UniProtKB/TrEMBL annotation:
Compositionally biased region (Gly residues): 11-22
Cellular localisation: Nucleus
GO cellular component, one term: nucleus
Region feature Disordered, mapped onto this chain: 1-27
Main location: nucleus
Name of protein: RNA-binding (RRM/RBD/RNP motifs) family protein
Record keywords: Nucleus, Repeat, RNA-binding
Entry keyword annotation includes Cell cycle: no
Length: 182
């Protein structure tokens, strides 16, 4: 693990761990195989440019990887190329998304409209029906999915909700920007 930390300068110290911290060079990497090491993660994405921070998110109780992480590049221009390419790590295709800086969701929501939201931090015991029911109180849910590990069949701790209306997502984003304790 020492190599990965040295190559990903800034881990753990003032660099920005998991979430979108306002850095335009930061990407979300989802669908990571559980056996992905920090070194493999950094080596794969390091092909595109200098990495200033990297983290594979782990379950706080078991310390097992949760199947997603974040990479931050020193040059934000690299992100476009990373997003355009397909990525296979340890034989599994992973999903790359640009992070949206916290606090800018409201201001950018005029330009960026979506009906789909990412929901992280889901308890492993949450069912699909409970997931849908919770968000149905905010608007009509047209699709929902909790992401599960294909091998263990356990929840990966995150999922997606698709609403019938972009306005619901705008309203939730405005609510989210105002309070992080819900």
């Amino acid at each position: 693990m020492g190599k990965a930390e040295a190559r990903s300068r800034g881990r753990g110290g003032g660099g920005g761990g998991g979430g979108a911290s306002g850095n335009p060079g930061k990407i979300f990497v989802g669908g990571l195989p559980r056996d992905t090491t920090d070194a493999t993660f950094v080596r794969h994405f390091g092909q595109y440019g200098e990495i200033v921070d990297s983290v594979i998110m782990k379950d706080r109780h078991t310390s097992q990887p949760r199947g997603f992480g974040f990479i931050t590049y020193s040059d934000p221009a690299v992100v476009d190329k990373v997003i355009e390419d397909n990525h296979v790590i340890n034989g599994k295709q992973v999903e790359i998304k640009r992070t949206i800086p916290k606090g800018s969701v409201q201001s950018s929501s005029k330009d960026f409209k979506t009906k789909k939201i990412f929901v992280g931090g889901l308890p492993s015991t949450l069912t699909e029906d409970e997931f849908k029911s919770f968000f149905a109180r905010y608007g009509t849910v047209v699709d929902h999915q909790i992401m599960f590990d294909h091998e263990t069949k356990r929840s990966r701790g995150f999922g997606f909700i698709v609403f019938a209306s972009e306005q619901v997502v705008d309203d939730l984003s405005a609510y989210d920007s105002g309070s992080r304790d819900h």
